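Contributing new records

If you add data, match the layout below exactly. Sequence lines come first and carry their own label; structure lines follow with theirs. Keep one chain per record. Anything else will be rejected by the validation script.
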Amino acid sequence: MKILGINDGHNAAACLYEDGLLTAAIQEERLRRVKNWAGMPTEAIQTVLNLRGYSLNEIDFVAMNGRYAAYPMTREQLMEAYRRTNDVGATVRRTLRRKFNQLVKWTPIEAA
C-alpha cells in the first residue's frame, strides 16, 4: 500500500509510505529555496513520487495534516468532494492541478 502524506501549512512537505515504511520525504523549502515555505507542496509531492518511480495514479491513499487547507475551498468541502467522487486520487489530482495552474504562468511554446 502506498500512502502520500501532505503538509500544506507552515514548512510544507510531502512524504511517501510504502507498506508501512517511510521511503521518501522532503520539505518544499528545500526545493524552492524559500525558508519556512507554506502552501501546497507541489514540488515536494512530485519529488517523492519521482524518487520512487510512481505517478499519482498509483497512490492508494492521501493523508493530509490537521484542519488547515490552502485551497479555494474549506477542509470540510474538500472532504465532501472526496466522499462524493469516492476517488481520492482524482480529487487530489484536480486540486493539485487547480493550485498548480494558479501558481504557474503558462507561456505558449511559440512565444518562448
